Amino acid sequence: QVRLVESGGGLVQPGGSLRLSCTASGSVSGIVRMGWYRQVPGNERELVAAITRSGNTHFGDDVKGRFTISRDNAKNTVALQMNSLKPEDTAVYYCNAYVVVVTSADEVKDFDYWGQGTLVTVSS
Questions:
Q1: Distance between CA 48 and CA 37 in Å, rounded?
Q2: Distance between CA 20 and CA 8 in Å, rounded?
Q3: H helix intervals, 1-124
Q4: CA atoms of 31 and 33, how far apart (whole Å)
Q5: Average per-residue pLDDT in the chain?
Q6: Would you state the pLDDT for residue 39?
Q7: Phi-psi map region of 121: left, alpha, beta (phi>0 left; psi -120 to 50 alpha)
Q8: What are phi and psi of 88, to 5 degrees?
Q9: Maximum C-alpha span of the chain
Q10: What is the helix (H) or strand (E) element at residue 67, kind and residue range?
């Protein structure tokens, strides 16, 4: 089990910046990738940004060039720096940890863990 605790959401004006942080605890050794997704009511959850343990990153098309993601493997944290925010960035942002484990029977299993979500509102 992996527990994810997020912080940093809130209200920001268009063009402003906000930083989200997420800390993982529990069985963190199996975390392969951490990232952020967002969801607006009525829409599917979509990828914002993700980063692997080795530092490879992937961004959703809507945030490329505006958002950056960083990870501290020693502290099991991931941060999302959001710049040049737009009203359409308004959503609940969820921290995600993708975990791969090998069981005692040598089976490979993967799991997705989610934080509780933090609301980001971009409005004047």
A1: 5
A2: 5
A3: none
A4: 6
A5: 95
A6: 97
A7: beta
A8: -75, -5
A9: 55
A10: strand 67-72
Residue 114: CB partners within 8 Å, gap ≥ 6?
Answer: 4, 94, 95, 96
Query: Residue 29, SS3?
Result: helix
Helix (H) or strand (E) segment spanning residue 118: strand 118-122
**CA 74 to CA 43: how far, in whole Å?**
35
Looking up tokens 């599917």 gives: 44
CA distance 124 to 116: 26
Q: Is residue 112 within 8 Å of residue 45, measured between CB atoms?
A: no
The string of pLDDT tens digits covering residues 20-68 is: 999 999 988 899 999 999 999 999 999 999 999 999 999 999 999 999 9
What residue type is assigned to position 101 of the chain?
Answer: V
Q: Which residue's structure tokens are 């050794």?
A: 29
Q: Are 68 and 81 in contact (CB under 8 A)?
A: yes
